[in-house]
Amino acid sequence: MFGIGRHGPDGKYAIVLDIGSASAAGAIVASDTITDVNPVIFSHREWAVIKDADAENPTRFIEEAILRIFLVLNSQGLTALRSYDKHANISYIQVAISAPWAHTVTQQAEYEGEEPFTITNKLVESLVETAKTETMNSDDTTAFLKKQGLEVITDQTLHMTANGYTIKHPEGLEAK
Predict the structure, then answer these.
(1) CB of 109 within 8 A of CB of 130?
(2) Phi first, then psi: what are they for 133, rounded to 5°?
(3) Model pTM above 0.90
(4) What kind of fold does domain 9-97 have according to CATH?
């Protein structure tokens, strides 16, 4: 399949795969070391057709999308490659597996004061801890994680607002 292992001129053609939790994409690209132009010769995306969210094999749908990508690359992709360069062969495959292959458990905490106040590191840390504690002590969250066989592997603060505006570093700002 794809003529892997047989090198075309300069071994300059590759398949790039992007595998996500709901889709798989594939592209055939060229690498021209003389002009630094790297054209995409062919690309295609297949979506995972999720028919039953409670299926025993939850990865089956993405596996089917990956299989469809390979079938399309082997037919339409190679046809496009031959149109671009009739002597071309694929020399490399690069695969990127992207998230979320997990679920995001959102956490939220708010603080409002009667009077304007200064946002401090201690206040931010307290709000983050409150959000984490409230979420992880929720029966819905713990039941969901247990049912799915998931565990928390990372926790990050992704978004903070002050006075209705998204702020990257709110410490030291006045809020009301």
Answers:
(1) yes
(2) -65, -45
(3) no
(4) Ubiquitin-like (UB roll) (3.10.20)
Nearest 5°: phi and psi at 162?
A: -140, 130
The torsion of the CA quartet 40, 2, 21, 63, rounded to 10 degrees, works out to: 160
Q: Which residue has the tokens 């055939």?
A: 28
Assign residue 164 a region: left if phi > 0, alpha if psi is -120 to 50, beta otherwise?
left
Token pair for residue 121? 């590191």
Residues 70-93: tens digit of each pLDDT: 999 999 999 999 999 999 999 899
Angle (CA) 165 169 170, round 5°: 60
Question: Backbone dihedral region of 5: left (phi > 0), alpha (psi from -120 to 50 degrees) or beta?
Answer: left
Within the chain, all domains assigned CATH 3.10.20 are found at 9-97
Note every long-range contact of 2-11, with CB atoms under 8 Å and residues 24 or more positions apart, other chains counting. 2/73, 2/74, 2/78, 2/89, 2/90, 3/89, 3/90, 4/90, 4/91, 4/93, 6/89, 7/89, 7/91, 8/85, 8/87, 8/88, 8/89, 8/91, 9/85, 9/87, 9/88, 11/91, 11/92
